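Per your request, structure below.
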């Protein structure tokens, strides 16, 4: 298994161009089976989760080709309505194919995704909503069988603004008879990107980015060219890299509107941030100020996907910070690893109290999940001495060319056991 070896304490300076968002490209690739047609998607990130989604699309009969940052999906043929179990296991978010397959083929069979690194992550909202649209759902022996040839629009109230459930409903209802409303919908930028994609193939979806989304069912869908929005979490992660190394990083091809909560919190720590709409420069502070209260929230709050990286930064602040994780119940797995590096963190339920320390020291640590793994790399960049981050396949799920990008701005980081990243 590959590891990162990082010699810390280098100040990072230079430019990085941010690629398309993982959490946008995965649902949009799922959506590409809807139109029975050609889909050309630009600005895709070279990450392992995308490779899994491409494998799934090929396994069900689509013709897929990837050339640099462009993927072409020909979804005119589907061979099966069964999503391969081993691939669902590899990537929990393949559950997003449920809505798309129901709409396209009128049925789908998928294995139950079960828990994952960051918590139980139930799919009860997804299943309840699909039933409201008229799908019949049977669950047995770890599999979910969904059938619904004639889905009908419904008024769906979500108990929580779940990103995945909102997306699944949008996909399932695009061809349903009549109108569907999603109330208390997720408002993340990735939902807007999905709406734009669906409308570009001929759908009638309105309201993404607000709490009420309306979908008027249509009969047929067409081919599309679409560009994925920049990854706001990758952007935020590199911002923290600048902050934690007292660096000066310029990030290009970003959407400043999508990262306002991250900008606000990093300004609280003392960072200087200058930006226009698509480029940003961030200068790390000489002394990192603590954050009195950082609470993860659905968008436009601070994303749960930035909690671990912000915590890595706060371990080096000159005071005490309080971080509350309100979205997922098991998202503090990076804490024990940061403590190995000298951090002073106490956990009380879903709250972490971080007392800043003068320095972190390099240690052997293990990535337990995607964002927690990124946080350990950030801590390693700032630590005295050598940090070895094990299990970095978690990080490969969501960061394109992380070590090349960091090397190009002055970090001392390398990957051991360079496995050839799986081909498409
Ligand atoms: C998505 C993102 C993930 C991000 C998260 C929060 C993708 C592929 N993944 O995950 O990276 O961290 O949003 O921004 O886009 N819940 C239920 N029942 C359900 C569904 C969700 O109880 O049926 C709960 C979850 O346990 C969690 C909360 O709702 O507490 C939010 O989850 P959700 O927004 O659905 O997250 P994901 O879509 O899984």
């Amino acid at each position: 298994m590959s590891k990162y070896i990082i010699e810390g304490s280098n100040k990072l300076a230079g430019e990085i161009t941010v690629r398309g968002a993982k959490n946008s490209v995965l649902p949009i690739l799922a959506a590409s089976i809807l139109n029975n047609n050609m889909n050309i998607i630009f600005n895709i990130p070279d990450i392992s989760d995308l490779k899994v989604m491409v494998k799934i699309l090929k396994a069900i009969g689509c013709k897929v080709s990837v050339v640099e940052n462009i993927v072409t999906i020909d979804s005119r043929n589907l061979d099966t309505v069964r999503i391969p179990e081993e691939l669902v296991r590899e990537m929990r978010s393949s559950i997003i194919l449920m809505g798309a397959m129901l709409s396209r083929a009128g049925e789908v069979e998928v294995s139950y995704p079960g828990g994952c690194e960051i918590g139980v992550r139930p799919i009860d909202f997804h299943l309840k909503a699909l039933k409201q649209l008229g799908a019949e759902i049977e669950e047995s022996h770890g599999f979910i069988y969904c059938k619904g040839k004639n889905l009908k629009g419904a008024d769906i109230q979500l108990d929580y603004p779940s990103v995945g459930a909102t997306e699944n409903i949008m996909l399932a209802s695009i061809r349903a008879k009549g109108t569907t409303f999603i109330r208390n919908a997720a408002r993340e930028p990735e939902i807007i990107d999905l709406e734009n994609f669906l409308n570009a193939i001929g759908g009638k979806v309105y309201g993404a980015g607000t709490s009420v989304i309306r979908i008027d069912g249509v009969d047929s869908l067409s081919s599309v060219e679409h560009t994925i929005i920049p990854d706001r979490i990758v952007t935020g992660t590199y911002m923290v890299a600048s902050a934690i190394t007292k660096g000066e990083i310029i990030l290009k091809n970003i959407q400043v509107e999508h990262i306002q909560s991250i900008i606000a919190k990093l300004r609280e720590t003392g960072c200087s941030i200058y930006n226009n709409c698509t480029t940003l420069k961030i200068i790390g502070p000489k002394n990192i100020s603590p954050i009195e209260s950082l609470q993860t929230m659905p968008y436009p709050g601070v994303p749960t996907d930035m909690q671990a990286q912000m915590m890595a930064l706060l371990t080096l602040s000159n005071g005490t910070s309080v971080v509350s994780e309100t979205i997922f119940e098991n998202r503090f797995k990076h804490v024990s690893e940061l403590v190995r590096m000298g951090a002073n963190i106490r956990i009380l339920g879903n709250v972490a109290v971080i007392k800043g320390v003068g320095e972190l020291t390099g240690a052997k640590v293990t990535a337990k999940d995607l964002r927690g793994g990124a946080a350990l790399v950030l801590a390693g960049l700032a630590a005295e001495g050598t940090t070895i981050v094990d299990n970095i396949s978690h990080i490969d799920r969501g960061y394109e060319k992380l070590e090349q990008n960091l090397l190009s701005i002055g970090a001392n980081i390398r990957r051991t056991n360079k496995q050839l990243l799986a081909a498409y």
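The chain has a mean pLDDT of 95.

Regards,
D.
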